[in-house]
Give the backbone structure.
Amino acid sequence: MNHVTVRHVTHSAFTADRVCLTGMEHRETVFILLLLSLFLDTSTSQSYVLDDKIGLGRVFDGIGGLSGGGATTRLLVNYAEPYRSQILDYLFKPNFGASLHILKVEIGGDAQTTDGTEPSHMHYENDENYFRGYEWWLMKEAKKRNPDITLIGLPWAFPGWVGHGKNWPYDFPDITAAYVVNWILGAKQYHDLDIQYVGIWNERNFDSKYIKLLRYTLDKSGLDTVRIIASDNLWEPITRSLLLDPELSRAVDVIGAHYPGTTTVAGALKTQKKLWSSEDYSTFNNEVGGGCWARILNQNYVNGLMTSTISWNLVASYYDDLPFGRDGLMTAEEPWSGNYVVESPIWITAHTTQFTQPGWTYLQTVGHLAQGGSYVALTDGKGNLTVVIETMSHDHSVCIRPPLPPFNVTSQNATFQLKGSFVSIKELQVWRSRFNFETKKPAFFEKLTPLKLSDGSFTLNLAVDEVYTLTTITTGQKGSYPEPPASAHFPKVYKDDFNIRNPPFSEAPDFADQTGVFEYYVNLTDPGPHVFTLRQVLTQRPITWVTDADQTISVIGDYQWQNLTVTCDVFMETVKTGGVFIAARVDKGGGSIRTAAGIFYWVFADGSFKVTNDLAGQTVLAKGESGTRAFGWHTLTLTIKGGYASGLLNGYTLWKYATLESPKNGWAAIGTHSFELAQFDNFAVEAE
């Protein structure tokens, strides 16, 4: 029998001279020593059988990451090389880092979907553009590294025209289905990307008529190989409907649940559909986050027979002070410095992804360890075997949701007996991660000495908070690059004139749209200095997923900025009712953007201005006449120092000594009074 020993406690450690039992009878001493050995001696081993002779379990569909829901990869595209490619390698390159099997992306819908808005391929019904945003680029980069990666699209929100004025996308299911199918067709036509799955998600209920129509539209468009995930949210009510409606059942291939807590429902199993945790994790990516990910990657199958788990989000590449900061598999939130951090979830992912592939099959012999933790085993059916074991304790594996019931994990010995076609395996590669919460010196994804098997069995001495992979696959690798540049604050002096003739992306670097969509624009009507600008392009409120603001806004910079000057040239395109602003100390984003406070300096096309303490424009600090009009360029300058603010218009003081109490810090921003066309140019910030 072979042993991989981490720590060892023997019976001889508990001799009579080590236990103070003065005056006790010999037989009483022996009895107490026996009890101690039962409770404290981890050399007693529990046995587990790994056998394919009794049949196999479900087919494994892969581990993935989610870009979007929303704008979670916003800053990644702005990284300079080689750092951007290094980050992508850690995520997607096989046998290097996370080596992800699946990339799921948001089908942008022009609306706020957690940390920002992502642009739609169809802002309007007669508008199609398959080069907006960065998800196309990301899918191509993933595919470049792993040609076999599975691609999934899911819309969170939709442009307003899809709902014909209603904040609901399914009253006109034929329009919505055509909109989604156009995105899939565009992915292939313009980027040679084959989308394999499309999700359907709404939080009120699911629409069976829409699902059936989407299946019909996909098939009619030659996309019969594209599979549908429904409801990409909850187990119910979709499960009951699938069991009652054969036509609906034929349309749906995967039941996807979000944050299922490693469990499913009996009805979902009865459908015989693939069961996925199609969005999971969403947890701060420190070591406890890594522990959460380790536990659910195993137990989603052990407890819930889910054959795929997808992390929200792929990479935390958005401003840290937006909601759910650092909830990605790794962190890349400083393109200005080049700094990024390969967090523990990357290496926890590698324990599974580097030694399995979609199409492998789980053994039926998987389960929980006697003293806490779990194990899974998978095979390719060609003689290869991979076993992943985790012993994460409760407090070191708590995910953000749902609540985690109490459980205990203790050190233990576990003996695994290989049977069936695996009995002839003579050697297993061993990879281990130790979280070491007590010493705060974790060691992730370490390659240990291969394990020689002589009788088809091996024993592991498992400590608490460890992950092991034992596998016949020999290609595993802990990839690495030189340390990236040191972390640094956003530059205190920042300028952008947007003068890029052929921008690689539709968004300007470092701007994070929170409501509305700000895109590079070529102003062919202006032969002067404002030919290349940034334009807010939405004129209709989108069908929202969270509560977008009534104004459009894009934030930028360092959330800790206090004293600064913001300058920008602005151009309103709506006569009389148009309005634009520049702002500083903006304190909220994401789903809380409606209630954002800050210092907002507005000018309007009716010749007025105002200064407000909130984005909604209700708390007015100053107002008056400005003489501003639509279709003319104006330069706004906002200066804040301590508790006072002042503003210039075209270089002349328009207002001053506005008194501020809060907020004390926040981002800079630009935006519009409503969903209206407006342009911005020569943006600059100088902060103290």
